[in-house]
Amino acid sequence: MSTRQCSVYECHNSGRKLKKWRETVCSIHQRLHRSCICPEPFRLLPFPTQRKDPDARQKWIRLVCRKSETNRNKIWVPNADSRICSIHFVDSEPTQANPYPTLHMGTLNTSSTPKPRKAPTPRRLVDTTTKKVLAKNSTTEENSTDTSVSSFPGHIHVNHDHDYDVSQKQECKTCECCSTKDAQIKRLKQMNTRLQLDVVGLKLKLKSQSQFSHNKLLKDSKVLFYTGLRNRKAFEELYSHIAPKLQRIRFWRGPSGLPKGVRRFTKSPRKFGPARKLGGRDLLLMTLMKLRLGLLNEDLADRFGVSTATCSRVLTTTLKFLSSEVFDPQTS
14 by DSSP, 3-state: which? Predict the structure, then answer.
């Protein structure tokens, strides 16, 4: 976070405030201010250096009129983060005609005495004998059981010392307005939730439409072009032939990824580990497209929405799998 800030007294412009403004949305162009063409509300201009223009530097320091925080008898000296914002200059920056900050130069009045403290509210003095009498009377009333309810007066006047005590007869005139606003807020929240769900659904739909899969092979001509098979029926028959073993296949991960022992699952035939990103038909389709069209791995990875490394592992495994399951070694 930037620590640069304006050195003029009672001016709160700083680099942090400017950064927050850049992260807000422009009401005119409907984009963030950092990418908008609207001018910034102010700029933080550095002091002239002692080597290039010492006179102007001393003039700026005198116009700021600050005292040192450590020693009030010394003049304040700016540091590397000390700035003066552009709103204190006539031309919004030091020019030849107006080189010094002269606008809105708040000064710290050190000669004024602090405001006197408000006198405390006087307390009402209560005699100790009165306290004892009141305590004795309250104890007597609590212990007495012969006093009937009818002996109490029918009307008891209560003195309300507070302004916030409202009579029960007074009714809030804004109840209808408040209920309308609550209903509007509830309706807007429901609309916001519905729009968020629509956005998620559209993102998933767009992602599914942009990715290539076996569902797009609706015509036999497409099946022949991408896979080399005659029609969709031949593709489904080939998949049904290799599906039982294809679901439990282990992808190649190099010599270091070879399992030391084979784990056998007697209860569940499903593959151990996380779910795959590609289904069995997509695995077969990717392999046939590699054989038919000779596409590069990066192209196939972009088509099916996976990484290039995943595509390479899939092809290395499925090509060997198809060669052992589909093609007969005796006929080769």
Answer: strand
Regarding pTM above 0.70, the answer is: no
For residue range 245-259, list pLDDT tens digits in order: 887 777 777 766 555
Q: Is 288 helix (H, G, I), strand (E, B) or coil?
A: helix
Q: In whole angstroms, give the CA distance from residue 219 to residue 232.
A: 8
DSSP secondary structure code for residue 331 in this structure = T
The strand pairing partners of 84, in sequence order, are 45
15-24, 172-181, 267-276: which has the minimum mean pLDDT? 267-276
The phi and psi torsions of 229 (rounded to 5 degrees) equal -80, 160
Average pLDDT over residues 72-90: 86
Asked if 40 and 32 touch (Cβ cutoff 8 Å), the reply is: no
**Amino acid letter, 300:** L
Tell me how far apart the alpha carbons of residues 14 and 33 are, in angstroms, rounded to a whole number. Answer: 17
Work out the burial of residue 112: count CB atoms within 10 Å of its CB; fewer than 13 is exposed, 13-18 middle, 19 or more buried: exposed
Which tens digits make up the pLDDT trace of 115-164? Answer: 678 888 887 766 666 666 666 666 665 555 444 444 444 444 545 454 54
Rounded Cα distance, 283 and 235, in Å: 12
